[in-house]
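[job 4417] fold queue: 2 targets
>>> target A
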Amino acid sequence: MFQNRFIGEETVADTKETPVLTDKPTWIIDPIDGTINYINGNPNTCISVALAICKELVIGIIYNPIVSELYTAIKGQGAFLNDKPIKTTCNTELKKSVIEVELFSLRNRSRNRDIRLGRFEAYVNITRGIRFLGSAAMGLAYVARGAVDCFQMDPLQSWDVAAGVLIVREAGGTVIDTKGALVGYTQCCLIFLTNNEVKISFEFLLIRYNFVTEDEYNVMKPRTIAAANETLAMEIKQLIVDTDLKTMRKRLTKT
């Protein structure tokens, strides 16, 4: 019998180590997602619980006790809200979509703040509307139930998204990783400064690298795009790539 493991903000704070999944049954728990909302009486707060076995998510539970909403999913058995089946929307166009994003990372004035601002401006210009729930888990639950069409946020922690990732997928949605652009830019800015040929080649490789598959999504290091379907997820992915490249070109003109 495998011994159960537990991953959460509290366990990581105790060990100071980045958690990793093993084949052991692992519970990934956030006892309060949307803490500021909870403190201020905002109903967008929840408990998020996921179970992974052999590194695969098999159970997802999100419970909002304020409004008595219980989202559940078991791998291969669909997603439910208070025992009623839920599905993502049928929308496949970003210009017709409502997207859930979070802006807390913009407070960090790191060298990549301009990239995050560029993405936000792109969402404002292209999407039908933007929502800010203040809870990653609730944002994913809203994608699953069709209340919003898509969700994009990074960086995150595994306990923020693990339950929601499975619920979205079981509701018919797609979850992929935004990784690639930010890492590539941080490590390879000097390549841009050599010559146009290298710059163009690098941009092409960067775009190719960004299109990771759903199977490559790493719930332990989540940078998340969740959408009603694969078509919409890939459109967001391409928008991020194009927008990040535009931001990097602006950086180069300032050097």
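>>> target B
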Amino acid sequence: MKYFIPKFMLEKSKNGIRVQLFPEECNHTFIAFIDKKLKIKTKVAEKLLDFKDSLDLREISIENLISFFGQDVFFNIFHAIFFRFYTVFIGREEIINIMTQFLRKIFTQLEYGRHIFAIDQEEFERNTKKYKDFLIIDFNSNIVIEPYDEEEEIFDFEFKLFKKVLQNPDQNVQILDTYSEFERLILLTDTILKELEPIKQISEDDLMKELDEKFQMKINRYEIPIIKKLSEIYYGTDISKKVTRTVVGQMSSWFEKI
């Protein structure tokens, strides 16, 4: 397998770049992390869809975007929008504009030129510092420079979400299901914050049990870190010290990183 790695992306990155690899006739895909010294680490991931080298702008869908960008880049875009990071594509402004209009069906507040941008390589190289906190995606190679604090984000939440969403072949239902999940997590976050107001500290297990018994609201353990992020980003409230991890939660997090 040979992959094109733009030299300027690696040189201008702070710590390195990320790229998805598509081995032929394989049910898995690989995520490669390449640092500034050209050291490479890879992670294996279950493949959702086969890669396609073209995108029909007349029929944009969640499925088509995942096939065209690769699931890792698509998850990165979704993650950035969800957690309010700006996203910059290098190249192909007309396609990025159309894609943004499609994503507005899920994130209604999203705007091209405000949350998602397209610039050329010269602009990026000239003003790299301006984009240091942005998600950077090179359209020609699907190489990614990430802005997140987490090293080697695995996008476990995004994978589980879209694996479930894609089980329904109806493209409109896929959009509705994704939007509903976004709304559910915001509602969960709002409910949890209100419940935590008089509480000094609570374990993940007790919180999950209380939500189920009191509100009939189910929450998965892997969603708790998402809720913590949302509470800080959308509500300006840090609940990381109030909601303590159980041994099960710590072991689950450890296994995810293997």
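[job 4417] complete. Note on B: Residues 254-258 have pLDDT under 50 and may be disordered.
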